Amino acid sequence: MAKLILLWLKCVVLWAIVEAVFEDQVGKFDWRQQYVGKVRFSHFDTHVQSSKKVLVATERNVFAALNTRTGELFWRHVDKTGSEGNIDALLQHGQDAVLVVGNGRLLRSWEINVGGLNWEVVLDSGSFQSACLVGQQDMVKHVAVLKKTAISVHYLSNGHQKWIENLPETETVDYQAVYSDGNGEVYVLGVVPHSHIAIVVYSMEDGEIIKQVNMSVEAPWLYNIQASCVVVGQGMLTCVDSAGVSFYMLDLHLQLQMTQVPLQSLALEVDPGFHPVLLSHQPNPARQPLSEFFLQLGPDHYQLLQLNNGQIAAMRDFKPSGFFGKQCYKIILEIQVKIVNLFSAETGRRLLDTTLINLRKFNSVFQLYVQAFLKKDDSVGYRAMVQTEDHTLTFIQQPGRVMWTREEALSDVVTMEMVDLPLTGTQAELEGEFGKKADGLMSMVMKRLSSQLILLQAWIGHLWKLFYDARKPRSQVKNDVTIENLSRDEFNLQKMMVMVTASGKLFGIDSKTGGILWRHYLHNVPPNAAFKLMVQRTTAHFPHPPQCTLLIKDKDTGLGTLHVFNPIFGKKSHVTPPALPQPILQSLMLPLMDQDYAKVLLLVDDQYKVSAFPSTKNVLQQLQEMAASIFFYLVDSSQGRLSGYRLRTDLSTEQIWEVIIPPEVQKIVSVKGKRPNEHVHSQGRVMGDRSVLYKYLNPNLLAVVTESTDLHQERSFIGILLIDGVTGRIIHEAIQRKARGPVHVVHSENWVVYEYWSTKSRRNEFSVIELYEGMELYNSTVFSSLDRPHAPQVLQQSYIFPSSISTMEATLTEKGITSRHLLIGLPSGGILSLPKMFLDPRRPEIVSEQSREENLIPYAPELLIRTEWFINYNQTVSRVRGIYTAPSGLESTCLVVAYGLDIYQTRVYPSKQFDVLKDDYDYMLISSVLFALFFATMISKRLAEVKLLNRAWR
Amino acid sequence: MASPGGQGGGGALSTRGGGGARRMKWALELSLGNTRSRGDRQGGQGDVVYPIGYSEKPVPDTSIQETDKNLVEKRCWDVALGPLKQIPMNLFIMYMSGNTISIFPIMMVCMMAWRPIQALMSMSATFKLLESSSQQWLQGLVYLVGNLLGSALAIYKCQSMGLLPTHSSDWLAFIDPPQRMEIMGGGMVL
Does chain B have fewer CB atoms within 10 Å around its N or its C terminus? Predict the structure, then answer.
């Protein structure tokens, strides 16, 4: 009995403990990575010696401060996209960073310690040319902004305008640069293209023109001052002409005549086809620039020059280099493949050379930002941020140590796929045994024995490892995910995210941790390329490696290339992709496989001829057999033409239908088919009277969205066209009058959801179309678009949505049993998971018994945004461009990746986790209750026996 | 069952007479003690000397033969009509429990369905009961019909509660997705 009481007490105590545990799930299943984009301007924060900041202003209109120790963001400000938020200039002085934003529309000052806004002023209209800080007597108090027709000077402290002056003769002179070196004068440099230079000198005090030089300085070779001229030394304007044969120098204070110095006299030669660039450095805006400057002669070839008493002297040539200088010391940092060299700028003497440690491979250096400082022992230390052409930021610190790298290419993901991880070696071995073709009884037995042996071996190895690790302290036993120990987890929740970025860099990211497992830079990707990523072989076909194919199409020439790679390791495949001599229009992946289990990819060229990849004999034979049932469609939005083609046995094609949408009235914006890996579990919907309304599940259905070319708010409209991709039959057509794009559309199962801007009511609206076959199925065993005599029933309903949206996607699960949600990326950075139940055209206006039976929500025009629907809680995802969904091994779980400026990965459970025990499931309580019951049974059995015996004694 | 002085280790005391042959004030039996007392318990009061005039077997009464026959008949009709009599009661319960699917109506329906089935299963036993009646077959038929009516009522209740798979929606989950005849792909010109 005492035991029982003790057990009971234990139970109570344990239960109490378990009850007290509360596990925060933040960051457990999700991660976010924040990026800034390709850096345009960067400054080290030097006003405090111990500062750990580097400021970056990027081409994605982001202004941010990075931690120099870790590479993380201190703060980040994301401005509007497009030219409105374009950062034109970044000037830094002390704690203030001054930005010119939106082609000279705004002047902003930020406090760089915490990233707060000091002030913002709206500038007068006019296109921005140049800006500089203006100092006087070693004090920098003003900023000058040069526009096309005017120059204005503002106070640094509060942004107030000190003076503004209109520039003289703006109709002929093109003013391009502004310069000041602390003597109380502001020089505005302009050019009359191919004729002469114009210089206007303003007084800093009141904006009065002190001096004006026009017509006298001939410069017929000059048309762009900023590209070819710098100010060096004591106000010497130094230019190099575009042909690259001579230097021209002009003293800004005297403004006499340009002196010409041929490059040949300095024994310099520009690389053929390269436009020479001059680089100078002005450490303090109140002082004169350094007299040392660079001439870039080739992509990787720099020449250090020195201006001394009006004479230019060549000092040394360098590899990609950066400049840093203060009055007391000037250094040059040179980066070669694996070596960083430090030079004194004054003498060209080498101060230091260090080898880079722990660096992968440097792609060619694009930009270099250097900070140097004097250490306590008076030796020179350096820090450098290197931007390479693949948009990687690498931070190097003395002695050649790579502190961090940031893959800024990931701020511009174009397309992505999620690939299952491979099974572990042993699992794969077992799978392989069953996967291979049978070849005799004996060999099968041998194979089975050998695989069992391997299993045993692995098990013993595992035991040994456990035993070995048990002796180590716990901190040393790490289980980092590396490319070697990648394997599929129990429920296939961890996958490999293959991301393709606009810069042509491919990444393999582990979906669980967000760690970049591999990266591969594709050289020579044109800047406006179109990408299409396809998974040809999944990991299910061991020992054949998984295979992804990326189609890269140059939009200018139309020519395409194929990059075939292994998505798990990122390595280029041994399979040689076919050369594509003809421009490629589209590609389509067939569910056919060759003998190596690679799906067949068909490439359609501009002659509407088809080539297959892989194109083995086996594949061609299969294609010939299947040709009659292979169709494809092409949409040419510029001509407003939708056309369908059929494959012939000789791999030529035949056009079978065509729909013309007149491009002068409306243009095709997007075409959405269904996702090939989508499963629909239920073929119909149960009505209130328990009959079935069967869904119209046409796998060949396309949703075509058009927008009117007329954007007047009374006449603009959007159209949606449901068209069968095989026959070209228009299933449904809807026009939304007084509506305007951008239209976001999701097409799945038997429904299409789209969102648009209603110009009539000035609000965002959702509309849903659902298609039903009716109360009877026409053919329940096969679906053929060619044999569909009945048109489906079309139901449609619209709703008001309180926010505009950035992108939209539907959840996807393994078997399609789980209810669907729409994932909506909002411009505010939230990702909303909206149940599809709310977008149901059968929502009744008047509630009836039947609709209640069906669990239909009564119609309400407004769709509310409930805060608990945000799947990313407070993890704002900036500028969501796309959402990718992938099924996991669990039916309840869908993996979601939102990408844009940031990348966010999480899991969603649209019908809650019905197939998983809860995280806080009380194993302790359940098992203790079980044990308690078990013991209670034992004890009571014993007690009953004793009692029976006692009774027997009576 | 007071047994004074019964502290003897293995033996058992009994105040009851051993075989009834010799009557003593008390006797102590050492040899058969255990077996006796156990047999005592199992065999009930077998060995107990009953009071005078008590007979274990009921005395057959032959004086009221006529009414007895009628009574048997009546009793058999009672048995046969039992299920039919329950029907109004069942109807009332059905009406009261309503058509919502919750634990109590389901229990009711289960009871209603199970009882006739149980009765039909033990039909032979009932027939044995009715053996003595002259209208055995008629009564059996009535009994059967009553039970069948009861189960029909239960089925009707199931039907009205929607528990029977009679609609196409009940078979919806078993429809496989149709096989796709054409392969289609394509898109916007890249």
Answer: N
